Input
Amino acid sequence: MTSILETSVADCHPASVPDYIPVEQLRDLQLQRLRTVVTRAWQQVKLFRSRMDELGLTPDDIRSLEDIAKLPFTKKSDLRDTYPFGLFASPMKDVVRLHASSGTTGKPIVVAYTQEDVDVWTSVLVRALAGCGLHRGDIIQVAYGYGLFTGGLGAHYGAEGLGATVVPASGGHADRQIMLMRDFGVTAICCTPTYFLHLVDRAAELGVDLKKLPLRAGIFGAEPWTESIRWHIENQSNIKAFDIYGLSEIIGPGVSCECFRHEGLHIFEDHFYPEIVDPDSGAPLPDGCEGELVLTTLSKQAMPMIRYRTRDITRILPGKCECGRTLRRMDRIGRRSDDMLIIRGVNIFPSQVESALLQIDGTLPHYQILLTRKQGLDQMEVQIEVTPQMFNDKIGALQELHQKLQGALDRVLGIRVQVALVEAHTIERSEGKAVRVIDRRAS
Ligand code: DLL
Output
């Protein structure tokens, strides 16, 4: 069971919460847990054992935290290749929950939890929500999807564990979400940042002024978002927007989360050990350097993950946070190493497009990249929604905006792409993760 120290964070003295434990004590705890989890994976998971054998390693070779670099990586393809249950370390009778994530290609990946895993998951979410200033008495609307996706149930258990009142709305039905928010006096919402942008737009159409509601916090994650989007959200709705990160393979939401300082996401290091590696060579990189985040679960029972290559690009932020937590912080995830597009030989990340667009007034934070192929040549069109005022303005203003955007994209991307200005609401809204790229090159 989760200890009382972990569940009632908001009511505890900081010194008694794992978020604030002295660093040396945290490192000792991590080492002890690392040795245990490696032993468990080695004993119970065939794939992991054979990889350790190939390297001539046994769990006894892990004597310090640095020794983690000796261990083999685990990749998403390992989960696919052993589908559905090949990486489980617990017998099925001890598995109380399965989640799955479909990804963009092929078979889904399946993840498992024992009761202890669910309790740990709840405890990290409680700590994450408490770090955002939420507590018993808050009314939290969970608008992440419920089901095989980890967002809904993860946030639900965390909010309930905190002692808050949960409104399990799940994703979709924007009008109903807004009605619930207003009628129930909801004080915090958990959903993807793009879905909240959609709710902001819809509320305006319905004549509901979000600024007049008790809503004061949004816990947003599951997809990359930028400071400009935070600014847009906070300005339109008068709430504080917090970034929460996680992935199914490790636990779901709750691997890390911002505190009220908004200077990076504190990693719940007592349960998830972070490393940053060079995405090409896999070599470990020091704190402060940008690279791929690799995570090891330190307490997972049903499905321990050793050195899991997340493909998410970030860095460990040096220095201490003013909030007093001793947990290290990661920078927000701007991109993944595998979302790179190669257009006419040039490497492009959707996040570059976003950063170019958001510097320019008159656009909305809704865009989509359309890839096609004409006579063997890749074409990239960026469709960008512009504010209704822009469309009502004289044609000259729209042309000027088009030129500015074309210039900004040319500069950032280094190749010429087509720019299409479209009216607000043209781009289809998603209830969950936004679809930023439509690739029609193969069809
Ligand atoms: O998206 C878990 C989650 C749910 C996190 C709700 C936060 C809130 P998956 O569907 O397995 O799990 O997708 C994980 O989503 O590897 C990142 O690429 C991306 N991602 C998740 N959170 C963030 C974030 C959930 N805050 C994948 N910023 C991860 C940027 C994020 N990307």
Q: What stands out?
A: Residues 101, 144, 150-151, 221-224, 243-248, 252-253, 310, 312, 333, 336 surround DLL (CB under 6 Å). The chain has two domains: 2-25+97-334, 341-439. The radius of gyration is 22 Å.
